[in-house]
């Protein structure tokens, strides 16, 4: 063009285009991204927990330990108390019967099991302690003198108080407190009543062989032997239940895409 002057071409600085932002339509949703990141983190945490649990199960040193050493939350005081009560009731109810005259003296049922039971560690070993009282209902059954009288029955109670882990069943060093009472003498004559009372045993302590209390002490020996075994068994069962519940929760968590689904009540 006449009268005009050509200007030299200017170089283009492309670096400024690096800071151009996308339009809103192409931007990722910030909330959705944050939620997805949260899900990913939760999923990773759950997978780590499961992997850690599996390693502990495969660790021989853990398997060699008693349940109370490898799982400090596996068993509570309430569980120990209930197990001790149930086990004592079961053992005492199996007290051997005693023959008295033409009848049989036996434990009919065990009721009113009360008191505390606990466990604690001493140098890595689990010890049990208890202070329990219970009442056993006993019966004396015999056949009448003739066919028309048939089977006869008398009934009474035998209470053992302050039965503790320090109680001595085979010596008089620390005997329990024993209380005996008739509930229904069932028409027994006085001489036979005396025979039944003697067959109950208890004085002097320890009970004489052949008495009901002698057999009951044998049953309590079984209780003392079985309590640690039954506690360990219950600990293992409780641990398995918790692990299975945790596994189910993890599977539900993974199936839901890392989202915890809770039931809405109401």
UniProtKB/TrEMBL annotation:
Domain of life: Eukaryota
InterPro entries: Aha1, AHSA1-like_N
Family statement: Belongs to the AHA1 family.
Pfam families tied to this protein: Aha1_N
A GO MF label: ATPase activator activity
Coiled coil: none
Species, as recorded: Alexandrium catenella (Red tide dinoflagellate)
Region Disordered, residue ranges: 13-72, 228-253
Name of the featured protein: Activator of Hsp90 ATPase AHSA1-like N-terminal domain-containing protein
Domain Activator of Hsp90 ATPase AHSA1-like N-terminal, first and last residues per copy: 78-167
Start-end of Basic and acidic residues biased regions: 28-50, 62-71
Highest classification ranks of the organism: Eukaryota, Sar, Alveolata, Dinophyceae, Gonyaulacales
